[in-house]
């Protein structure tokens, strides 16, 4: 299970109500995916939330949750990191120009392709006029890397084996692609002046852009370190506890997680299965299986956190609850805090708050160590 996925879930245990962080640049797709914007009470919640009271799983014994130890390591922000962010911003504003030279990493190749598995093709293995930025990871690495060196007008073939965990239809199978290269383009990225910065970004100058990006990266590194510290502590609690986990509870959490993709698909005017195939290269069955370990972890967290809250007398007062409503209302632009309850139930909000209190208690009673 990827730590990042768990950290996203831990950051907002029950609700996904954390707003996109403000930045001088347009929010990235990743931030949008890790956030939920409350637009209206009709569409904001598309799933049946899983609450502690809903679970049939049991906590057999709670492990130690006080006096835990974990390292909090902040990743160093290098000049290369800063320059990579600057280059990314410049690329967003750069013009793509035709090049006669062979394609290199970072170039955009427009191709027609048809794939064959055991001599047979399908609609999922062919496309025309597809832009592929080599090294961007929009296609499989084996596919993109073999486009290095192609030139405009060239016909070529590439072959590789699909990963075992890829789309069920082709997973683990050998494939050969016939490719026609329509064009090879490169980003024209001349050196920027202060005027270029002001015209294309919200920064005031090259110096402001560089220092601001360095600060943003540092803040992100510190946040990652905090998240990793929190995850390591919680993982210790889960691993030292004993649970009786019921499949129905795990499936309920999986339902909650995959429902987000229903919204993504609808926003793109697609059926969910079609969306998953086109953008993720997985089936719904594969997506559910990818989430199974995380869902199991969530069941365990809910059980353990409520037991910690019970043992330590952690509760949510009416005053704290009203303060949370006001904070959420302010965050999402509601003039009346009670309108939040039309979007998310009081039970959901209190569920999040009680689990937050348990996490905070674990952290407050833990010790930071160096590796």
pLDDT averaged over residues? 86
DSSP strand (E) fraction? 15-25%
How many β-strand runs?
9
CATH topology of the largest domain: Trigger factor, domain 2
**CATH domain class name of the largest domain:** Mainly Alpha
List low-pLDDT spans. Answer: 1-46
Radius of gyration: 24 Å
Distance from first to last alpha carbon = 23 Å
The helix/strand order is HHEEHEEEHEEHHEHHHHHE
Shape: globular
> In CATH, what is the homologous superfamily of the largest domain?
Trigger factor, C-terminal domain
Helix content: 40-55%
Helix/strand-derived class? alpha+beta
> For the report, how would you describe the main beta sheet?
5 strands, antiparallel
Work out the count of structural domains.
Answer: 2
Q: Per CATH, which architecture of the largest domain?
A: Orthogonal Bundle
- What's the total helix number? 11
Topology:
Elements: H1 3-11, H2 29-33, E1 58-61, E2 69-71, H3 79-92, E3 95-98, E4 108-116, E5 126-133, H4 141-145, E6 155-161, E7 174-188, H5 194-200, H6 206-240, E8 242-244, H7 247-267, H8 272-280, H9 284-312, H10 318-332, H11 346-364, E9 367-369
Parallel strand pairs: 2-9
Antiparallel strand pairs: 1-8, 3-7, 4-5, 4-7, 6-7
Helix pairs in contact: 1-6, 3-6, 7-8, 7-9, 9-11
Subcellular location: Cytoplasm
Signal peptide: 1-18
Catalytic activity: [protein]-peptidylproline (omega=180) = [protein]-peptidylproline (omega=0)
């Amino acid at each position: 299970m990827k730590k990042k996925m768990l950290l996203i879930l831990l950051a907002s245990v029950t609700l996904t109500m954390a707003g996109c962080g403000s930045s001088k640049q347009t929010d990235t797709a990743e931030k949008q995916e890790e956030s939920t914007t409350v637009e209206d009470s009709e569409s904001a919640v598309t799933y049946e939330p899983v609450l502690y009271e809903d679970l049939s799983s049991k906590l057999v014994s709670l492990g130690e949750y006080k006096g835990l130890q974990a390292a909090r390591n902040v990743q160093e922000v290098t000049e290369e990191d800063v320059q990579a962010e600057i280059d990314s911003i410049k690329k967003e504003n750069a013009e793509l120009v035709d090049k006669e030279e062979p394609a290199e990493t970072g170039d955009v190749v427009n191709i027609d392709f048809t794939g064959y598995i055991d001599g047979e093709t399908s609609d999922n293995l062919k496309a025309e006029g597809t832009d592929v930025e080599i090294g961007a990871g929009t296609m499989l690495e084996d596919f993109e890397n073999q486009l290095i060196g192609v030139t405009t007008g060239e016909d070529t073939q590439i072959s590789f084996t699909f990963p075992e965990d890829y789309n069920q239809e082709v997973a683990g199978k050998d494939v050969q692609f016939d490719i026609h290269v329509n064009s090879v383009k490169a980003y024209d990225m001349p050196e920027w002046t202060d005027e270029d910065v002001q015209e294309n970004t919200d920064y005031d100058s090259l110096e402001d852009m560089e220092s601001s990006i360095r600060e943003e990266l540092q803040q992100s590194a510190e946040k990652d370190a905090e998240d990793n510290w929190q995850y390591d502590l919680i993982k210790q609690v889960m691993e030292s506890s004993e649970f009786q986990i019921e499949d129905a509870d795990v499936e309920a959490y999986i339902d909650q997680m995959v429902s987000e993709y229903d919204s993504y698909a609808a926003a793109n005017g697609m059926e969910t299965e079609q969306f998953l195939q086109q953008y993720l290269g997985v089936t719904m069955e594969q997506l559910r299986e990818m989430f199974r370990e995380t869902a199991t972890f969530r069941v365990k967290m809910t059980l353990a956190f409520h037991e910690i809250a019970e043992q330590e007398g952690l509760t949510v007062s009416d005053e704290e609850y009203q303060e949370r409503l006001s904070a959420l209302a302010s965050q999402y632009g509601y003039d009346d805090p009670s309108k939040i309850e039309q979007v998310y139930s009081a039970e959901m909000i209190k569920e999040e708050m009680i689990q937050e209190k348990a996490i905070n208690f674990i952290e407050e009673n833990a010790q930071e160590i160096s590796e």
